[in-house]
Amino acid sequence: LDFLVATENELKGYYQENSLIFAIISKRKAVAYRDEAKYEDALKEGKKSEAILEELMKQNPEKSVELELVDLYEEVVGAMYCQLGDFENAELYFNKELLIYRKYFGEKSKEVAEVYTGFSIHYLQKGDFKQAEEYALKSVSICESILDGNDINLAWAYSALAIVYSDLDYNDKAKPFYDKMAQILEKNTDNRNLKTYEVSTLYARLVLY
Q: What is the CB-side half-sphere exposure of residue 45 using CA atoms within 13 A?
C-alpha cells in the first residue's frame, strides 16, 4: 500500500489526475484495503477509480476501459457495499456487472456465471435462500455447459450451491457439491488464481460433511 501511495504521488507530476493510470492505482489501493478488511477505505478508493473510469468512458468508450470498470465493480465496489451491509447498492453494482458481461460475452459465459455466483452469496447474506439457490443453480448450469470439468470457476460455482444447501441444513444436497469442489481444488493446487483464504474457508466448511 505504501508503494502504491508513493507511486501515485510521483506520477502526479506527469499525468492528469483523471488519467487511466490513476484509476488503476486507486483500484489497487482499494484491493489492498479490502484484503486488510478496511472496507470503508476500500470503498472510498474504489469510488475514486470508478469516477475516473466513467469519465473516460464518456470521452472515448472503449472495451478495455469498460472491462476495467466492471472488474472494479466486481472486485471492490459491489463487494464492499455487500461487506458493509448496504445490500441495495451491492445489488445495483452486481446488475451493472451483469449488463456489461452480457454485452461482451453473452449469457452463457464464465463471466456471467461468476456474477450469478456473486448474486447467490449476496442473497445468502440477506437471508433470501430461495434467490440464493436460484442464482447458484444458474451459475452451475452455465459452468457445466461451457467449462472443462476441472476448471476452477466450476469449483466456485459448486461451492456457492453447497454453501446455500449447508446453510439450509440440507446436508445431503450439499455434500455432493462439496465433494465435486474438493476434487477440482485438488487438481488445481498449482493454479495461481487460487486465493488461500478462499480455499481455507471452503475446506473449513467441507470438513463438516
A: 22
Number of residues that make up the chain: 209
Question: What is the Cα–Cα distance from 11 to 16, expressed in whole angstroms?
Answer: 9
Residue 21 CB burial class (10 angstroms; 0-12, 13-18, ≥19): middle
| Amino acid letter, 177 | F
Give the integer Cα–Cα distance in Å for 27 and 25: 5
Give this prediction's pTM.
0.78
CA distance 207 to 200: 11
Task: Output phi, psi for 118, to 5 deg.
Answer: -60, -40
* Cα distance between residue 78 and residue 46, in whole Å: 10
**Residue appearing with cell numbers 454453501:** 163
pLDDT digits (tens, 9 = 90+) for 111-161: 999 899 888 888 888 889 999 999 999 999 999 999 998 888 898 899 889
Question: What is d(CA 35, CA 27) in angstroms, rounded to the nearest whole number?
Answer: 12
Burial per residue of 68-93, b for 16 or more beta-carbon CB atoms within 10 angstroms, e otherwise: bbbebbbbbbbbbbbbeeebeebbeb
Q: Say if CB 122 and CB 87 are below 8 A apart.
A: yes
CB 161 within 8 Å of CB 177: yes
